[in-house]
Amino acid sequence: MDLDVMPLARRADRGPATTRASRAALATAAVLLMAAAVLLGVSPAAAASLTRVTGFGNNPTNLNMYIYVPDRVAARPALLVMVHYCTGSAAGVFNGVGHDYVTAADRYGYIIVVPEATRSGQCFDVSTPAALRRDGGGDSTGIMSMVGYARQRHNVDPAKIVVSGFSSGAMMTNVLAAQYPDMFSAAAAFSGVPAGCFATANGSLWNSECSGGRIVKTAQQWGDQARAMFPGYTGAYPRMQLWHGTVDTTLAYANFGEEIKQWSGLNGVSQTPAYTDSPRSGVTRTRYGGTGAQPRVEGLSFAGDGHSLPLTGMFPHALSFLGLDGTSPGPAPGGQVKNAGSGRCLDVAGASQTNGAQAQIWDCHGQPNQQWTSTASGELRVYGGKCLDVANRATADGSGVIIWDCGGQSNQQWRFNADGSITAVGANKCLDVPSNSTANGVKLQIWSCSGAANQRWARAGS
Hints:
Structural class: alpha+beta
Strand order of the largest sheet: 1-2-3-5-4-6-7-8-11-10-9
Number of strands: 24
Number of domains: 2
Helix content: 10-25%
Number of helices: 9
Radius of gyration: 24 Å
CATH architecture of the largest domain: 3-Layer(aba) Sandwich
Strand content: 15-25%
CATH topology of the largest domain: Rossmann fold
């Protein structure tokens, strides 16, 4: 397996700070917090589920990849790429400014990929030529390898891949949406700049003209700059939600208007708002190309706020825009699994723990041979170390289902579907009670999926 559990401590750096003084203060605070955790034996439960992945694919700039798979995952989960700020980390954004995304993942069953910059300063490269070209060998190339890894292993809905980031991560959000418009359906950028605005010719990752809001272009010019990142592409661009404070002194507020120009142009909508309101005091929301909750472009302007977004209570607006609140999680990770047709439970015959023991249906009684745990890699485990297994890696209708030592192969991977069926991933066939039988002791098999009651399952009591 390519997963290493990440030992995390909660970070104090909850926002996108960028000054030298703030970086020093954050580093000192992080060291003190880590030391306190060691002395006190602190191991925050929330951080324990964030997992590092190695060997995920092409990674030319040596980024780290972390993934969060909630205990209950939707049958076809959405995927959020959550990108941290300068001086940040996967731990910092996971436990800090982005933690509302994490708690929402627990509720709605979507998966989160968290890239981590490893260069000095922990900023993402949105400046060099390699960084501003699709598959150009910059940070965005490594991030898209992470997306590909998650898609292959978690049955991600390709129409629900979205990206959101903060400060440097917001700039990367703009770049990813411009370079990979065929991959992302929507994006939300908190305190960023237009895609390509931070471009430099001297290798520097900082562009003072852009950060100061002194680069002004037309919608056509900004659009052309984004289109140059993926030459020849003629399809649709992602919906874009933009957040900015009016007194931001790190990435000037003027960039907010330039982002709106770029994304209204790329999405082919007017720069004149179709709808304007105030979801809370001091916040002006403008929608372009539509009046509903998911227009082509949406801007949220925060009067009197600086480089410290989002504000408490505002995350639901991002969730709704990105479409992350429209899914529902699958079955709970542990317990009995009950067949709809027979009313009996998935059971290991004779309560055996021997490799090759048959899976069957039996009256639900809650003993250990009926306690099944779903894992992030798609296993259905019983007794802790045995997995539900398609015998001999077979793929034909009627192939038997047994238990075996867990080995991570595709014949031990199972997918809970929205209709209640459970698909054997390797065979692409469904867990089936033969001949619609309802008798105790009927041995289970895989069969072409039909949606019938003998192929529908649910956690007992759900």
